[in-house]
């Protein structure tokens, strides 16, 4: 089998093997891992990043959450306003609570 033919390999693993027909999370995780490896081989063969093979990047820049850790619950809009100011100063556009 040609490793550049991802679909042929996937169909063979899924349709023509005893394990693929029975399914299950372990089998599908294995098929998925092989599929990831095939995409990596294809990217190395064409000397192109995999994201370009999958259609290229969609956005030039992404908003990231600011690295702010809340030690205690904030009370009302006053508390969140102060945290939002810190987020904007650090370059983040949003707050992510853990």
Could you characterize the architecture of this molecule?
- With 98 residues, this protein is mostly helical.
- Helix content is 56%, strand content 0%.
- It has five helices and no strands.
- The longest helix is centred in the middle third of the chain and has 22 residues, at 25-46.
Whole-number average pLDDT? Answer: 77
Number of helices: 5
Low-confidence stretches are: none
What's the helix-strand series? HHHHH
Shape: elongated
Beta content comes to under 5%
Structural class: mainly alpha
Distance from N terminus to C terminus (CA atoms, Å) equals 46 Å
Main sheet characteristics: none
- Indicate the percent of residues in helices: 55-70%
**Radius of gyration (Å):** 23 Å
What is the number of E strands? 0
Give the secondary structure arrangement, pairings included:
Layout (H helix, E strand, L loop, with lengths): L5 H10 L2 H5 L2 H22 L3 H4 L22 H14 L9
């Amino acid at each position: 089998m040609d490793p550049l033919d991802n679909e042929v390999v996937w169909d063979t693993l899924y349709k023509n093997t005893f394990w693929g027909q029975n399914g299950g999370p372990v089998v599908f995780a294995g098929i998925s891992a092989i599929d990831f490896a095939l995409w990596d081989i294809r990217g190395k063969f064409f000397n192109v990043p995999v994201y370009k093979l999958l259609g290229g990047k969609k956005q030039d820049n992404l908003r990231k959450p600011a690295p702010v850790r809340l030690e205690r619950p904030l009370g009302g809009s006053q508390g969140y306003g102060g945290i939002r100011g810190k987020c904007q100063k650090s370059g983040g556009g949003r707050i992510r609570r853990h």
